[in-house]
Amino acid sequence: MSGGAESRYSRGAFGGAAVTDRDEPGTSGGAAVTSGWRQDLPFILVTLSIGVGIAVVDTFSVFDEARRSGRHLSIWEPATWEGTSVLVISAMAPLIMVVTRRVWPLGRPRWRVAVVHVAAMLAFAVTHMTVAGVLRWAAYRMVGGHYSAFGLLSNFVYELRKDALIYVAVVISYVIWRLYQTSRVQPPVADDAQASIEVRDGARRHFVPLLEVAWIEAAGNYVELHRGQTPILHRAPLSEMERQLQGAGFIRIHRSRLVRRAAIIEVESKPSGDYVVRLADGRELAGSRRYRRPLLES
User: Fold this and answer.
1) Torsion over CA of 132, 138, 144 and 150, rounded to 10 degrees?
2) Most buried among 25, 31, 119, 141, using CB within 10 Å?
């Protein structure tokens, strides 16, 4: 769609999402929130509570099954098995969260996401089996009993299936949590939600709602308004669009690119000082170090 020479923007007070960078002290990267690990603390506590609840249920289930089958089993034994698993998983959950933020599951390229998370899942499983086994061995030794420290590793395939499910559950839950946190800092839906950019196509006028535009990119004497999969071509220089959209939640991340802050879910820094901005729909945009500080301070 090609447009005319004019653009009109209905101004309003847009909040926009603040962005954190995981390489900055006290921030967590990930979704577009400002309080870092404190923002994720409720997720960690809920995950821990669920893990403890499952461990308690499994402890009494195993104990009851042993009693019904006539097998002697002290209650402290299944409690130790489940407790050590919860302890190790809880300790590793923040690491899974870091991997999830650094390699966002909805990001691209898909093959890289898959490779990293499969490798992380295997590392999680091996660590869980090893550390939990050693802790159980130590607990049994304290009461004069015996437990094979590496018994879980000897049954690797069986244990891997369970650990893979745990890893996937944590990742999926965390992705949902971060997306939820992002949605909480979206611009308020009020009269400002009606703000739009007028794009002229001959005698016709199209009004593109700002809340549907994820980013704007320069294209010669035009700009491309990206919403969904099909960009809309609009005749206006990027500098003019930046001026018109001041206060509307858009920020420049590159000399040829503006992004709506509320659409950002992660900022990944590069050794060169440049960075990659990931959007909630998984798309990635390159950012220039020249515009790094204004992005992080917004």
Assistant:
1) 50
2) 31
Classify domain 191-297 at the CATH topology level: OB fold (Dihydrolipoamide Acetyltransferase, E2P) (2.40.50)
Q: How far apart are CA 111 and CA 119, in angstroms?
A: 12
List, in sequence order, every beta strand (DSSP E) within the chain.
196-201, 204-209, 215-219, 222-226, 232-235, 250-254, 257-260, 264-269, 275-279, 284-287
Task: Return the closest-CA partner of residue 146 out of 130, 158, 133.
Answer: 133
CB 193 within 8 A of CB 202: no
Which regions of 84-135 does DSSP assign to beta strands (E)? Answer: none
Q: How far apart are CA 86 and CA 54, in angstroms?
A: 9
CATH 2.40.50.1020, the chain: domain bounds: 191-297
Hey, what are 9's tokens? 């923007």
Q: Which tens digit of pLDDT belongs to each residue from 276-296?
A: 888 887 888 888 888 887 777
Identity of the residue numbered 154 = S
Q: Say if residue 166 is exposed, middle or buried (CB neighbours under 10 Å; 0-12, 13-18, 19+).
A: buried
Tokens of 54: 């499952």
Residue range 89-132, pLDDT digits in tens: 999 999 999 999 888 888 777 898 999 999 999 999 999 999 99
